[in-house]
């Protein structure tokens, strides 16, 4: 059955029936079916008196309800042979149709709410973030962050075997700015230095700060990070 706006903004006869149920403030299982039928017929008749054309689907439902009411008035057994001419032959038939319609209507309302919320969201086509970044040119096969990280792990592994048996632990404040100054001093003297030679200490803090300092200097175009081939030393070169 098609549900289109016809009269008083009802989306078909089932919508009108459901509205009458809600107006009664009763549960679908509790409302007297005869009362519901009478209210539906009364509403349809009132629309005719107002010279409003009634869609055929409303009139078909009216005939279905009158058929059901006649069966109820003559106390015809509801489990007897049903009429093939009508879809609604019992009170349960009508209640089931209303319950099914209410479920569909609730789902439709939920989707409508989602559609309205979605209309408030404005999308922007994805863009390549590199278009907004400063252009960085590398002269050689520059190692990636992953390669730098692998080099650090390898350095830590080798350092384990050179660590003295007795060590003295001291706390020293480290900052990226101070470490960058240290690296600049080294590069001013040597111009090029092996990446691993920058690690005079192997504490976690020292490694992290040195690693971030190298990345920051690369980003600001102060240095070139060079690796001529896989497994070759990573070279830090002053620009």
Keywords:
7 helices; mainly alpha; Arc Repressor Mutant, subunit A; 5% strand; 239 residues; three-stranded antiparallel beta sheet
Textual characterization of the structure:
With 239 residues, the protein is mostly helical. The chain folds into 2 domains: 13-119, no CATH class; 135-238, Structural maintenance of chromosome 1. Chain E (Arc Repressor Mutant, subunit A). The chain has 7 helices and 3 strands. The radius of gyration is 41 Å and the shape is rod-shaped.
Q: Overall pLDDT, averaged?
A: 76
Radius of gyration, in Å, reads 41 Å
SSE string: HHHHHHEHEE
> How much β-strand is present in the residues?
under 5%
Largest sheet: 3 strands, antiparallel
Structural class: mainly alpha
Topology:
Elements: H1 13-24, H2 33-49, H3 56-73, H4 91-119, H5 145-159, H6 176-190, E1 192-194, H7 204-219, E2 223-226, E3 235-238
Antiparallel strand pairs: 1-3, 2-3
Helix pairs in contact: 1-2, 1-4, 2-3, 6-7
Compact summary:
The chain has 239 residues and is mainly α.
């Amino acid at each position: 059955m098609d549900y289109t706006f016809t009269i008083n903004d009802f989306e078909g006869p089932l919508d009108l029936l459901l509205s009458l149920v809600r107006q009664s403030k009763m549960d679908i299982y509790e409302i007297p079916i005869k009362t519901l039928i009478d209210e539906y017929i009364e509403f349809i008749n009132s629309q005719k008196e107002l010279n409003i054309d009634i869609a055929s689907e409303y009139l078909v439902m009216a005939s279905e309800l009158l058929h059901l009411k006649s069966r109820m008035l003559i106390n015809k057994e509801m489990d007897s042979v049903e009429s093939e001419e009508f879809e609604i032959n019992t009170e349960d038939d009508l209640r089931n149709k209303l319950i099914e319609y209410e479920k569909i209507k609730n789902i439709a309302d939920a989707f409508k709410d989602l559609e309205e919320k979605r209309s408030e969201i404005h999308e922007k086509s994805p863009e390549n973030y590199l278009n907004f970044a400063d252009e960085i040119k590398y002269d050689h096969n520059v190692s990636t962050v992953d390669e730098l990280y692998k080099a650090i792990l390898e350095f830590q592994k080798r350092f384990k075997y050179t660590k003295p048996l007795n060590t003295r632990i001291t706390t020293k404040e480290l900052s990226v700015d101070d470490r960058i100054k240290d690296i600049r001093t080294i590069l001013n003297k040597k111009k090029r230095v092996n990446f691993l030679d920058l690690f005079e200490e192997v504490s976690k803090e020292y490694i992290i700060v040195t690693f971030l300092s190298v990345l920051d200097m690369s980003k600001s175009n102060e240095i070139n990070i060079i690796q001529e081939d896989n497994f070759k030393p990573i070279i830090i070169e002053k620009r």
